[in-house]
Amino acid sequence: MRKLLLYFIITLGYSVHIISTLPQTQSTLENEEVKALAFLEEEDRLLAEKCFQAAEANWNYNTNINDVNQEKQLNASLEYSKFAKISWQNLNSKFKSWSNFKDPDLKRRFKKSTVLGSSALPEEDLVQYNQLESDMTKTHSTTKVCAFLDSTNCNLSLDPDVKKIMKESRDEHELRHIWTEWHNKCGNRIRNPYQQFVKLSNQAARLNNFSDTGAYWLREYESDTIKEDFDQLYETLAPLYKQIHAYARAKLRYVYGDQFSSDGLIPAHLLGNVFASSLDGVYSLLIPYPQRASVDVTNEMKAQGYTPLKMFQKSEEFFTSLGLIPMPQEFWKESLIVKPKDREVVCHATAWDFCNGKDFRIKQCTEVNMRDFITVHHEMGHIQYYLQYKDQPHIYREGANPGFHEAVGDTLALSVQTPKHLKEVGLLDQATQIDDYETSINFLMAIALKKVASLPFAYIIDKYRWAIFDGSVDSSRMNSHWWKLRKEYQGVKPPVERSEENFDPGTIYHVASHVDYSRYFAATIIQFQFHRSLCKEAGQYDPQDPSKPLYNCSIYRSKAAGSKLAAGLAMGASRPWPDVMKSMTGQEIMDGSAIREYFKPLEEWLAIKNAQLGEVPGWD
Ligand SMILES: *[C@@H]1O[C@H](CO)[C@@H](O)[C@H](O)[C@H]1NC(C)=O
Ligand SMILES: *[C@@H]1O[C@H](CO)[C@@H](O)[C@H](O)[C@H]1NC(C)=O
Ligand SMILES: *[C@@H]1O[C@H](CO)[C@@H](O)[C@H](O)[C@H]1NC(C)=O
Ligand SMILES: *[C@@H]1O[C@H](CO)[C@@H](O)[C@H](O)[C@H]1NC(C)=O
Ligand SMILES: *[C@@H]1O[C@H](CO)[C@@H](O)[C@H](O)[C@H]1NC(C)=O
């Protein structure tokens, strides 16, 4: 789940054509600024054209993987990069004194525009860089594994087969088999290309004057202390995670007793998804009060004949109920929302901005279930952001920081999943009792297993990659270091022995496709800050009023909440994110207090429950 980043990563193209028309005379700074602005404006237009072509070729490849389309995509990407590079060179040589510009907005645009990304590589290296990235994505999307106890069926794909088995099977041997198949067949093949790729990626970062790829990625937070800030945020939330981990361990031990030893770690194949990235896949084993209402309305969706299209329409209806922008016609016409049977596609859900202010699409192999319903909102949140900032200069058409972009749809989904909203839209029966303590705990558990349980995972993926990028972990520890972090922060261990033949992080889409992941860590924090602020705006939450707890808030139909959200999104990246955050939440920082407040009743429940179970939070 991510927005499509490629065209933001390779950022601006500055055409050579316009340069020759600019007078070369010495001028005052102000004149220089007028010229600079005219230059940027013209570039925006040219850029949109080029960007559209590259995006279209990329879309065609992602929705129809074959060698011809891959070659077209690589060609288009290279052409875009060449255009971007020449223009960037012109920009740098023509406006050397931009850092003395007086106009803060113009200066900001230049500051962003002088970072070129991978296009800075010499052509030969860039070709290799693109090829490696494309091949790793292809490997990840097309890897097939063999079914359990049936070596004649080796046609299982990640989406939907592997995901389904890891979520639904309770046969430990089958889970272990599928987990091992997937990790060996996908990860091992990505290990070598990834090592080559890292060298090129670091080279590109250095050409952009960053020490390595990690520093290049983190520039988007515009803060020198961002790593420490993430560490601190993680520390704030670790106690809550440890309670959830302990409770999950106790419950999973009932089911898979012999898999657990005294170290307190949970084997990675038992968490309900092949990445062990969260715990929502085993909600049915962990539900606190099974006799009470569950907020997993998958069965009800199926009974009511939900289709992927209906899921998208329902999601859109939530956005428009807030007064937000409806999905444009092109969206409904061009999006791919069901996995096609006649060709390979990159199933990983993505939201696309074609840079022309008109064409926006989602690609998702949607299945009819609650999890995918939430994913639809997530992806549509990206489209909403694209729509809100589409009239900004191209360079500002991105999230205030990467976490903002990932947080928008999730923020709405926090309302969508409340029992009262599900009842309101007929996904919970009218007769269902929802206002009792037990139902609230069931609900909070469902949300926590997805959000809180994903925090350590989201935290360590980039912590791991920063260490690979800066060279502090070399190839002799590429896989073992991953498991070291997994154990330390997540309390998870591999179900079978791993070695340096393996490359288990490579089984994660964002590693294979080279997308940063701290965005999801940030987003999980930010969405609760957004939720808290929008809920106040909607009159649905009051910290002084115990009958209006944060978790029970739904902003459905609140135009006040919608306009507050829209105003923040429309700024794009035109201001440093603390300013945008301030306008949306009154705070200037990413802050874990909202998430702790939201889950407070669950945290109290867990402390008591774990004590009753004799389960001590933490591990060796
Ligand atoms: C997939 O790509 C191939 C090769 O470019 C093309 O012939 C075919 O029509 C495409 N299929 C679809 C459904 O677009
Ligand atoms: C890609 O570019 C190369 C070199 O310009 C060209 O020979 C080839 O035909 C192009 N491939 C496609 C599929 O357009
Ligand atoms: C495996 O799946 C591919 C497409 O996903 C299909 O073309 C092929 O026929 C399948 N093979 C078997 C043995 O089922
Ligand atoms: C990197 O820094 C050097 C020296 O300060 C400078 O000459 C060069 O233009 C910079 N490159 C970029 C891409 O900013
Ligand atoms: C949730 O809010 C509704 C009103 O919107 C209220 O009737 C209900 O009692 C609240 N439930 C909880 C658990 O606070």
TrEMBL record:
Glycans are attached at residue 64. GO terms for biological process: proteolysis. Disulfide bonds join 146-154, 347-365, 535-553. The active site is at 379 (proton acceptor 2), 379 (proton acceptor 1), 510 (proton donor 1), 510 (proton donor 2). InterPro entries: Peptidase_M2. The keyword Acetylation does not apply. Keywords: Carboxypeptidase, Disulfide bond, Glycoprotein, Hydrolase, Metal-binding, Metalloprotease, Protease, Signal, Zinc. Residues 1-21 form the signal peptide. The keyword Endoplasmic reticulum does not apply. Its EC number is 3.4.-.-. It catalyses: Release of a C-terminal dipeptide, oligopeptide-|-Xaa-Yaa, when Xaa is not Pro, and Yaa is neither Asp nor Glu. Thus, conversion of angiotensin I to angiotensin II, with increase in vasoconstrictor activity, but no action on angiotensin II. Chloride binds at residues 221, 519. Belongs to the peptidase M2 family. This is Angiotensin-converting enzyme. The lineage of its organism: Eukaryota, Metazoa, Ecdysozoa, Arthropoda, Crustacea.
